[in-house]
Amino acid sequence: MNAGPGRPRALLLGTLVCCLLAAAASGRALQLQKPAGEAPAAPKPKAKTLRVVIDYGDGVEKHFTRLAWSDGLTVLDAMQAASESPHGIAFKYTGRGETAFATQIDDLKNQGAGKKNWMYSVNGKRADRSFGVYKPAAADVVRWEFVEYNDRQ
Questions:
Q1: Gyration radius from the chain CA atoms
Q2: Distance in angstroms (rounded) separating the CA atoms of residues 70 and 92
Q3: Strand pairing report for 141-148 and 49-55
Q4: Closest among 136, 139, 140 to 123, alpha carbons compared
Q5: What pLDDT is recorded for position 46?
Q6: Residue partners of 18: CB distance under 8 A and separation at least 6
Q7: Of all helices (H) and strands (E), which one includes residue 62?
Q8: What whole-number distance in Å separates Cα of residue 81 and Cα of residue 56?
Q9: Cα atoms in the Cβ-side hemisphere of radius 13 Å centred on 50
Q10: What is the pLDDT of residues 108-146, one digit of tens each?
Q11: 27-81 pLDDT, tens per residue?
């Protein structure tokens, strides 16, 4: 056996490689650990969202499935967020706060009493107040429908 000057280094390197391969093959690969006292990273909280659906009454709907929700957000705020979406909506309304009233979404204008108008519901229940003050909860579904208005509905 030739014991040249590079031989001990090659032998040491070969032994190290063999040990690492054996550890990896046995499932005991090296694991890096955090220094003592460092807390593990907390999982990120999921963003709270709500959903807005616009039903044009002709078989066409637009769905906004991930609008950001925050405490105090109103349906009007959600509509404004939907209008800022890349494939958003245009809408018009009159009044503000308790008197805010939707008059048009995209190219469909309210037609008046006994005809088609924009009505909204939250989680399937017809809203009982202005969309300027209604505060949906996180994960709620706000649905606007262009339907015939009947004040007995």
A1: 31
A2: 23
A3: parallel
A4: 140
A5: 72
A6: none
A7: strand 61-68
A8: 19
A9: 25
A10: 999 998 999 999 999 999 999 999 999 999 999 999 999
A11: 554 454 555 666 666 666 677 999 999 999 999 999 999 999 999 999 999 999 9
